[in-house]
Specification:
3-stranded antiparallel sheet; 66% helix; disordered N terminus; homodimer; 2 domains; globular; DNA binding (chains A, B); transcription (chains A, B); WH-like_DNA-bd_sf (chains A, B); mainly alpha; DNA-binding; Arc Repressor Mutant, subunit A; 237 residues; Four Helix Bundle (Hemerythrin (Met), subunit A); 3 strands
DNA sequence: CTATGCGCGATCGTATACCACCTGATGGAT
DNA sequence: ATCCATCAGGTGGTATACGATCGCGCATAG
């Protein structure tokens, strides 16, 4: 039970329940990018009718987790290498905004939580655990934001890129465990220190560094990761 | 007719048709922020059942145009002053990315279109016309992008802020028609010149200036515009 | 052997009817 | 005057049915 920064409450509403379950499966990698999602099948499995399933799919489309094509079904969102690259460029530019909005209002307890997660992360060896902790770490720094709009955009990007980050981590774990892993930890430490001291601009710089280096790392390895990039300029019907 | 980066055609699909109509009403201001949307009513009016209407509402929720609360109905998205401010800060940071991605690939015809729209805009006095031309102008500069993800985010922000921009323009038209209006035109000219010369960084700078100044202008007048801002830090169930 | 077109099945989209539940408002009791 | 209970409107969900559309395999032509 990780403290997922997303997870909406509302248990009684079937569509929300379906959406949560589906989102979990996508974010956990159980449903990989490109996987087809059949409405009947899912409705049957979750003991509900197709309407909540359809509603859930629309909700997930809103979050960028699935893509729906009329009469052709829903599939888990796929990103091209370029999309992934762009996602990081966007993060680099807007997450500092979210951070600056939150940091001044973080409490002592928030900082304690942050430190705890950071330290647990430094000892983590399991990919799933590391991903969850990484996510939690950053979202604690964003915890006291007052800009849901911005947070939603950021979260959406985290969600849509999650599967690809996982693929990378699994790949990287084999041969860079000590090198890249350590750098990652150092960056977290830098970010934590700046956040704890409420040095907003330093924290922003640390965050940008962190995101940019991760992007570069990911780009370096993206050759082996799948994806038939369509180098098309805009779309035309 | 703005160059919508997605806008699926598909006329046969009722839900898409409903979504398009609803989006039009919201963007035109016919349905102002906060307006309630009743499913039965809309279904009846458009001679369809509630299912396509629900689907359409979910689609519009995905675009950030409406907000759906379980059992409490759908309403046109409302932004607080803070949301509006943040929207502009986001635009300031990510639209230059989109611009840089597109400008190098703009054709001579694109530039001709751009110039045409700019000149028509300089003579426009009608608020609706000016808004449409403003939108078209910028989207022509983005026309040759290859990053639908980024374009989608940008378009979403344009959509959700449209009603508020309209309110401002209507307000400003009365007493700043010559002052602010001229500045606006000059900025467009600066952007156009840089784009035409394919000076990407200059164009980006001009764009940032344009967005930032618009934001400042809007903030200055936002006092009179509605909105009961909830100064709450994050949400808590 | 490859390419083109056809047709059928699997799914999706939509319609209808009905019940269950939530929300907001109305009105009465303290 | 404030608070709580009740009630209608409206949405969420279920069940069922049927037309429309897309993918894919198969037959046929080159």
């Amino acid at each position: 039970m990780t403290t997922d920064p997303y997870s909406s409450s509302l248990q009684g509403v079937a569509s929300q329940r379906v959406a949560d379950i589906l989102a979990g499966r996508i974010l956990s990698g159980e449903l990989p990018p490109g996987a087809r999602i059949k409405q009947d099948e899912l409705a049957d499995e979750l003991a509900t009718s197709r309407i909540p399933v359809r509603d859930a799919l629309r909700m997930l489309e809103a979050r960028g987790l699935v893509v729906i094509r009329a009469n052709a079904g829903a599939r888990v969102m796929t990103l091209t290498r370029r999309d992934l690259e762009v996602s990081y460029e966007i993060r680099e530019r807007i997450e500092p905004l979210l951070l600056a909005d939150s940091v001044p209002h973080l409490t002592g307890e928030d900082l304690a939580d942050l430190r705890k997660v950071m330290e647990r992360n430094q000892g983590a060896t399991d990919v799933e655990e590391a991903m969850a902790l990484e996510r939690e770490f950053h979202w604690i720094t964003y915890r006291r934001h007052s800009t849901p709009l911005l947070a939603q955009i950021v979260e959406r990007i985290w969600d849509t890129t999650q599967s690809y980050r996982r693929d990378y981590r699994k790949l990287a774990m084999g041969h860079t465990m000590t090198g890249a892993g350590r750098t990652h930890d150092v960056e977290h430490q830098l970010l934590y220190d700046a956040v704890a001291k409420k040095e907003v601009e330093t924290a922003q710089a640390a965050l940008v560094l962190h995101i940019r280096r991760t992007r570069a790392e990911l780009a370096r390895h993206s050759g082996v990761l799948a994806n038939p990039g369509s180098g098309a300029r805009n779309e035309a019907g």
